[in-house]
Amino acid sequence: MTLGAALKIMASERVSSLFVTSSGLLAQAADTGIVTERDVLRAISVHGGAAFDMPVGEVMNKALIVVPADALAYVAVGRMNRLAIRHLGVTDEAGIVAGALSARDLLRLRAEGAIELGDELANAKDVHDLGLSWAKLTGVVADLSKEGLTANQIAAVVSQNVIEMTRRAAELAEAAMLNEGQGRPPCRYAVAVLGSAGRGESLLAMDQDNALVCADDAPAGADRWFETFAGRVNDLLHAAGIPNCSGGVMAKNAAWRGSQAEWRRRIDHWISRSSPQDVLSVDIFFDMRTAYGDVGQVEALWRHAFEAARGNAGFAKLLAAAIGTIAPGRNWFGGFLTTHGRIDLKRTGLFGIVSAARALAVCHHVVERSTPERLEGPDRTQDRP
Questions:
Q1: Residue 132 domain boundaries
Q2: Where a domain ends, among 308, 341, 368?
């Protein structure tokens, strides 16, 4: 397409940029360019009227800078600020360009601390940088509260930063192993977060819950590479401010690492056996979300867990029974029950709501991650029976 034809589209559609691709509608970011109003003006200033007959491919910028569709808007603003650009592409879980963002779309956002934190984590060069950035989280949460964000929105910001922290730790660990001569990953794989981070409901007091999934075509001995890699990721996160999981739910432990086939066997075993101990292992698996790597590995496994539990009344009852008795948060006189002046809001309230919503979602095949979406029920999901 000529630049003149592209400019007519911008004017008629009242947009300030166009994406350019030869791959049709299902284009990856790497195969997509962008031409903006500024690019048109630069071309005209250099070539005069001849610029209108130039192909857009000679003027566009490539590859398109993108953010995932589930990234918080603050991440997008931070990326624009750092790269001094005004337009971003938006990708779906498969990496396909699915939408566009401009600076105009984001004008109403403020909360600069959250913007800066997200981008700092994304570009941390080592564990020291990660730790310095992570230490700002409490202040960011306080600022977001002052901005009037709801508790759910703030928890989503915290969760997104947990995911960003995990992603960057994985990138750093992978790069370090390559630099040390331990080679590239032996096959496709993904690091997933589990529990509250996967649901988008993390609180400030959190620890690590993560797992590693690799493709079934992993060569013999591949787990030695993944064991070393996962250990580095978990150690980086712990040193930077997200403590190790006291229950051992971390990718460096063999029980939370494996191929697609191995994970499917574990899930099927957990669900079919339906023992209290197995419920402790599998429940947070229904919350899993990709933090780094091949999103298809995690997505396929997450959906398999829901399919494996479909129609299993015994497993659903066990999930419900595992909630147990919720500790009261108030005394007979209407005051708060505290220990050393503190109240555990997770133990006295949130745990029961989250666990009950998860059990109901599994029982009724509501394939969603967040508690509000699960409670809204099957009317909003395409995966209902």
A1: 112-308
A2: 308
